[in-house]
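Run: sequence + iron/sulfur cluster -> complex structure.
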Amino acid sequence: MMGDRDYRSTIKNAVDSIGRELEIEINSGDFKTIHLQEVVQCLRRSYYDRTDSKEIERRGFNDLLSGLLRKLEYGSVAKEFAIDDIKLKGQADMLVDDIIVLFRPSQGITESPLAQDLLYLNSCLWIYDKTDGVIIYITNNREEFTFSLTRDKKMFEEIIRRVRVFCDLLNEQKTPILEPSANCADCQYYQRCFIGKKNSKQLSLAEMLGLAKEN
Ligand code: SF4
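>> structure
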């Protein structure tokens, strides 16, 4: 008999606990070691993760796949790439026959990969000094679809630029600017970025437009 236990919250708690175990370990005070995950996503989110973090809401076991594979180290251990005195640290999910493989969850089949997954894969190709890689998306219906990539220098130079910017902002204790994207909807800092503090003063439309009355 199933009884009336709240299985949904039991499963959510299980997913959250495993997710915490699988999270990339980041030493928030070590500004000279930047993790690849931090610079392919919104820098503001990564900054909050280091300085005033809030737990992310995980949707299901599908979200844990990449972390599980990283933990099992299927042919892939974390590697570092030196950018002056900064270390950029990244880890592929798998390394098979010299091909970097990433697994990502997806809500459905799409025509192109997510930009942040492409940036992650391309950076792994440089960090591991490999030429080709693939991203395998797995949907909730257990369908899978794949995109392949040959490494691109310009794309990696953009990541190097973001590593330097993020490192400078951490050192200067400056919050990065908003990087609005589709990811904001699932971001745990959405309220902080777009709604603000509850007790903040409400601005009238005239004030927002700089048309406040002069006495
Ligand atoms: S809500 Fe958007 S802009 Fe704000 S931290 Fe999250 S991803 Fe970045």
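>> summary
Residues 7-208 form a domain with the Lambda Exonuclease; Chain A fold (CATH 3.90.320.10). The chain has eight helices and seven strands.
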